[in-house]
Amino acid sequence: MADSDTEYLQSIPWCADLLADPDFVVIPTSTRKFKKSTEDALFAKTLKTDDTIRAWLALFRQPAPRATKIEEVYTIVSLGYGLNGYPHVCHGGIVATIMDEVMSTLLSVNKSRNGLSGGAVTASLNVNFLKPVWTPQVVLITATFGETKGRKLYLKSTVRDNGGIVLAKAEALFMRIVEPTGKL
Q1: Contact 55, 5 (CB under 8 A)
Q2: Fewest Cβ atoms closer than 10 Å to its Cβ: which of 11, 71, 143, 159?
């Protein structure tokens, strides 16, 4: 669906401008691909319809040659009426879930760059809804790194409409997963 996602989003002028910017790299979103294990089924199946999330593309700004970390990811998401909690308004739980997923994308893209082996999981997520997230519409969700303290990774996310107006903000704490060593 990545090709149809790109085609669809390129038909929207502000999305086409962002996708055409040579400073950005489009990255695959593995959670939008169905897996036999059923991992990521929420985004790969349940929320992957014309009425829910028709298109989803993630990208990041090309880092400097010696950069060890991608500091921010951008994700363009089309929101359909199937996500409504109130008429023409995306359900707040869905908005929070999408922001969490975009922050996870930032961690995933950095996995090989800065030693996030084993991954990380959401420990807490605080969302502030500033304006209604109307449907249908295409939004831009960003995720950025805050500070890192040992296993604790602090991230932030925003949801913006096509005019750049911030609709929701989130702060999250992710915990790095520590693989058991077999020692007590």
Answers
A1: yes
A2: 11
Classify residue 90 as exposed, middle or buried by CB count within 10 Å of its CB (0-12, 13-18, 19+).
buried
Interior angle at CA 144, CA 139 and CA 149, nearest 5: 150
> Pick the residue with more confidence: 27 or 156?
156
| pLDDT of 1 above 70 | no
Q: Which pLDDT value is given to residue 127? A: 98
CA dihedral 64, 177, 108, 155 (to 10 degrees): -70
Using one digit for the tens of pLDDT, what is the confidence trace for 80-134?
999 999 999 999 999 999 999 999 999 989 886 665 566 899 999 999 999 999 9
What phi, psi does 138 have (nearest 5°)? -110, 130
Q: Which amino acid is at 35?
A: K
Residue type at 122 in one-letter notation: T
Interatomic CA distance for residues 170 and 177, integer angstroms = 22
Q: What are phi and psi of 76, to 5 degrees?
A: -100, 125
Overall pTM > 0.90: yes
Amino acid identity for residue 72 in this structure = E
Our CA angle for 151, 66, 105, nearest 5°, is 45
